Amino acid sequence: MCGLTGGWSRQRFLELQAALPRMTHALLHRGPDDDGHWCDAEAGIALGHRRLAIVDLSPAGHQPMASASGRWVIAFNGEIYNHLDLRGELEAAGSAPPWRGHSDTETLLAAVEAWGVQRTLERSSGMFAFAIWDREERALWLARDRFGEKPLYYGWNRGVFLFGSELKALRAFPGFDAPVDRQALALYLRHNAVPAPFSIHQGICKLLPGHWLRLGTQDLEQGRLPEPIAYWSAAEQAHAGRADPFAGSEAEAADELERLLRDAVGRQMMADVPLGAFLSGGIDSSVVVAMMQAQSARPVRTFSIGFNEAGYNEAEHAAAVARHLGTDHTELYVTSEDALAVIPRLPTMYDEPFADSSQIPTSLVAQLARRHVTVALSGDGGDELFGGYSRYFLASRLWSKISRLPVSIRALAARAISAVPVGAWNRIYHAGAIVLPAEQRWSLPGDKIHKGAAVLAKREGEDLYRDLITHWQPQSLMHGIDEPAKFGPLRGRNMSNLIDYMMLEDARHYMADDILVKVDRAAMACSLETRVPLLDHRVFEFAWRLPLHYKVRGGTGKHLLRQVLYRHVPRALIDRPKMGFGVPIDSWLRGPLKEWAAELIDPVRLRNDGYFDPEPIARKWKEHQSGVRNWQYHLWDILMFQAWNDLQKSDAKGVSDGTC
Q1: What pLDDT was estimated at residue 659?
Q2: Is residue 431 within a helix (H) or strand (E), and if so which, with residue range?
Q3: Residue 229 pairs with which residues in a beta bridge?
């Protein structure tokens, strides 16, 4: 795991060359072990790299690295898990160079020399982002892994093409000037994160997952930005899987899933440094740890954090799973003061507005793990692949019933449901939910019922999904600003059922733009590499060949994943309500965070900043403080933008770098 940055400009090369050490230093937290720079004055190209040494700790792994012929020079962030297989193929074909070391970076360069960039990407399994310079054709290639585990920003700024793992590297270029992209801000309000290909800055993009971009000399001369090209598409693979369904029995499907998971986990245990795993005690992290322990000769290091607030504490469940599997488990109970101490670092850590409040416990567990290991495997991805989110069942049940009724009747029902206060719905639900299995009970039922009412009048299931994932309707806060037309849910290629559609959209956007961003930034702030075995592309492609009833059954998700896990962990340790990974932001905003929040969303301040209409925010703040409604997520969106914007307005040079 590393950080990369650089730029390309003939006219301003000397300025770029002088700035490169500063740009690279901005990524120190991503790579504290080594620092590297490579420049070609004649071409005007500069590459910078910070290294977190994971595989091949010797100087042979130093970057930027040149290929054996000298044609290609790369700055690489990530891991190629099948690089030993690629080496074997190159050697068998007589295309391998004399190896200088055993790093996957060297393997990647040799593969590019033998097969070209596109074919190498198609054959590589891993998480990565890289910039590779072709000295022969004077062309710069940027590429990103299939799901977007590793970040890569790029764009023109003041006549220089800049790129980097984080925006702070681009901002370190002298005179960097990129105002807030208000359309991207509108997307942030809806999704609580800025989705690719947008960034919060005008003119700066994120490379889409599964894409590459090639910038040639003519592009440089004309200041042009070529369109990225896809080498892998989640949507295409999902539709291909549906066209080629798995024909075996459920037991055979479980066998194949376990084989794929075991192989994916085994490959991702490759490291020359201490390795462990996050363990919440939930299905996803437990199955990853079970696969790790099954392939390890010694106890796997596992980590979890606990909270004294019962509704947010999963540590006892994690400890029970760890005891059963025999892992070397470390848990840390954190106080509200520990969690609150993370908040001032969030704007720098996440680099652009980001408002998934589980960023706080994610940061805390990353800090805990980094005290003992350099690499941690994570269980992310299971919900999107195997139907784990409660909104899937809520939306499916709701749509199956309401889609038969005229829109006018649904609109009337929505008004009637919304007329009943959230607190009353909570009391009604809890009185009846006693008859439901524990794993099917909702948290915050009144809020979910009100949100469900808001989508009753939708004409299509896709519109229902869009409302379920929406935080703010952007037009309610940003008058006259439209969301970018080229961003939105898939249309015209709908899945045969709403749950499949929602899982695919979550994999394309929510997972890539929220979940993976959250984990990457929180972990890299502590110089911790994270790996996500459930996002091995073979697991994804197999999951989409499975019939839906192998994933979702009886109102419960992850059916087949559970069957695999039950082979390693007793059902009694796993079957319980889904808790999520959060902190009590709602009560904190009425308590220890109240003064901080009130200052950030002061109506005069909001009006002067000129981004948001302060009235809807003030109304939600008042309702939240009175306890009438729980607006924690809406308010957190605004607070995280305001905190980020404050940082931008200050002299960033004197601000903490966001490391642990």
Answers
A1: 38
A2: helix 422-432
A3: 212
Q: Is residue 139 classed as helix, strand or coil in its secondary structure?
A: strand
Element (H, E) at 132: strand 126-134
| β partners of residue 48 | 5, 37
Q: What span, in angstroms and rounded, lies between the C-alpha atoms of 15 and 231?
A: 34
Residues 6+ apart with CB under 8 A from 391: 468, 469, 502
Strands annotated E in 173-254 = 204-206, 211-215, 229-230
CA distance 147 to 145: 6
Measured torsion, CA atoms of residues 315, 659, 509, 266, in degrees rounded to the nearest 10? -60
Give me the count of residues in the chain.
660
Q: What's the CA gap between 392 and 398, in Å, rounded?
A: 10
3-state SS of 286-326? HHHHHHHHHCCCCCCEEEEEEECCHHHCCHHHHHHHHHHHC
- Report residue 448 CA to chain centroid gap: 24
Give the span between the Cα atoms of 199 and 180, in whole angstroms. Answer: 9
Query: What's the token pair of residue 160?
Result: 């220089």
Contact 248, 256 (CB under 8 A): yes
Residue the block writes with tokens 């901080």: 596
**Sheet of 375-377: strands edge to edge?**
328-334, 301-307, 275-278, 375-377, 529-531
Name residue 238's amino acid: A
Mode of pairing for the β-strands spanning 2-8 and 45-51: antiparallel
5, 17, 232, 622 from 147: Cα distances, Å: 21, 32, 9, 40
Q: How would you classify residue 137: left for phi > 0, otherwise alpha for psi between -120 and 50, otherwise beta?
A: alpha
Question: For the segment 7-60, what is each residue's pLDDT rounded down to a tens digit?
Answer: 999 999 999 999 999 999 999 999 999 999 999 999 999 999 999 999 888 999
**DSSP state letter for 125:** -
d(CA 168, CA 348): 8
Amino acid at 629: R
Measuring CA to CA, which residue among 23, 315, 29, 280 is closest to residue 176? 23
Q: How many CB atoms lie within 10 A of CB 70?
A: 9
Rounded Cα gap, residues 564 and 256, in angstroms: 10
Q: Exposure of 25 by Cβ count < 10 A (0-12 exposed, 13-18 middle, 19+ buried)?
A: middle
Name the packing angle between helices 250-268 and 559-566 (round to 10°). 70
Give the tokens for residue 446: 């009144």
205 CB contacts (<8 Å, ≥6 apart)? 153, 154, 155, 196, 197, 198, 199, 225
- pLDDT, tens digit, 9 for 90 and up, residues 88-138: 999 999 999 999 999 999 999 999 999 999 999 999 999 999 999 999 999
Please enumerate in sequence order all residues whose Cβ is within 8 A of that of 587, keeping only pairs 6 or more positions apart, or say none. none
What lies within 8 Å, CB to CB, of 317 at 6+ separation is 280, 281, 282, 573, 576
Tokens 């991702």 found at: 268
The list of the chain residues with pLDDT below 70 reads 1, 309-312, 435-444, 455, 457, 488-494, 577-581, 651-660
Distance between CA 340 and CA 592 in Å, rounded?
8
* Cα–Cα distance, 614 to 601 (Å, whole number): 8
Nearest CA among 219, 206, 162 for reference residue 5: 162
- Going from the C-alpha of 284 to that of each of 31, 320, 512, 574, the distances in angstroms are 28, 15, 17, 10
What one-character DSSP code corresponds to residue 440? G
User: Can you say whether the dihedral through the CA atoms of 213, 216, 221, 227 is positive or negative?
Assistant: negative
Burial of residue 482 (number of CB atoms within 10 Å: 0-12, 13-18, 19+): exposed
